[in-house]
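Hey, I was hoping to borrow your eyes for a little while. There's a protein on my desk that I can't quite get my head around. The fold is given in discrete form, as structure tokens running alongside the sequence. I'd be grateful if you could look everything over and explain what you see. Here's the protein in full, and shout if anything looks odd to you:
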Amino acid sequence: MRVLVLRPERAAERTARALEARGMTAILAPVLAIETLDAAIPDVAYGAVLATSANGLRKLKDRPEIGRLRGVPLIAVGDRTAEAGREAGFAVVHVAEGDGRSLVADAAARFPAPSRFLHAAGADRAFDVAGALAAHGHAVDVVELYRATAAPALPDTARAALSAGEVDAVLHHSRRIAETFLMLAAGAGLTEAIRPLPHAALALRVAEPLLAAGCPIVAVAARPDEGALLDALAGVINPGSQSGGERSN
């Protein structure tokens, strides 16, 4: 089973290993690249650092301000982001299972209002963490440390594999990835090649562009983590298995 993996290279390599452990082969074709942004980090005291993605913490790790931030707690969405926080030197790491809403609930439960937080963020965010915490009486400094930029064209690996009929399924880790893939595939004249393929999406919001494009087989992960995404993939390529996700068609 050959699976097209579209996420940026470092993360894609981890996904490839996870697929290999399940007896599948990854075709790595990143449609986004991670660009570092030089945003200023305020020199103030924070109750905690918030992170909704590992990329934010990897970029924060390389900043000189990390020395003074390691001493405050980190609230991270998911185990992968928490792992990046530990690699960055945070000693106290709280894991919020789920998504940005889970992070907001965790921060609101742990800290009395008004508290001030630093959100180590990307330029494109699916959920307004700062706005949600403001409703709880907290202040959040959103510092954009990276930006995901779209590839100018569909990667050669994807174009060749799709043209040869060598792709059995496609993974979508974010809505931006799904939207970019659809756009680049159309530019390469491969829309009809990708539409009938099984697709697996990390969340319903990620699946929406695929459904709007007329893809008839789209599995949605039961939880927003990679294990659940790969379970959904297994279900959509082998409908008799226990996928733990939803299928739209």
